[in-house]
Design goal:
The chain is mostly beta strands. The protein has 3 helices and 14 strands. The longest helix is centred in the first third of the chain and has 13 residues, at 15-27.
Length: 260
Amino acid sequence: MSSHFEAIGIGVTSEDEFRERVVSLIGAGTARQIGKKISEHVWTDSSGARLVAQVHRGEIDLLLPCLAGTAPAIPVRNVRLVDDETAMLDLLDGVAGEMVCPVAVELEDRTALAHSGGRLTSGSLTLAALAEDITVHADADAYEASQDDDGLKFAADHFIPSGTFALEEPSPGWTPSAHALFAGEVVEAETPVNTVTGETFHRIRVRTIAAIELDVAIAATDLEQPPARGNIVTGTFFLTGSLGLQPADATEKRRRWFRR
């Protein structure tokens, strides 16, 4: 399984490389002041690779590698932060307005959400994911044929928010993680190049349950060839997204460096 950084074309193999590559990218991104001592830094490549960092007194508190999603926004409700990194929210069917499922997501704008109280009654989420383990099937028939006749079968457009379930008796302080098991049809596919690192990765648009669409990044080392339109993909994914929050008092500026 590749790292979340590799899924967006940023290979990091050592602490020194992390300092030289990841920290420098964050420092070259756009910064906005969230509070007196907290700022948010966002670097986005033309490939869609994105890094979001929360910086406190010049030190990185939180770092999120993600994909700049362009899928249609999904209506959500009952948005609330459950820890420093993760938010829980209810995904809604955009047509019927009914709840599809609760899900845990790491938000690009979690710093803004926290600064505004950590809760929203409703909103719109642009959802994306980084593939951790993925299998590609030629089409829905091939996907169906791959399932064990004697086992539990899943539809070709299922979505299971696995990170919201504790597999064992949860320990004190347990919180959900931004993970899901899902399957869906590939409706768009490309292999962009991260312009800073020169590394490629696969970027696909997947349509899953309730016609929900999300963008998915896949490390090129995990799949030699990108999935094609009409394929069915299934696997384990790390979920990220944006609510499009903009703090009223945020000030944007360029930061060329900061201490780590």
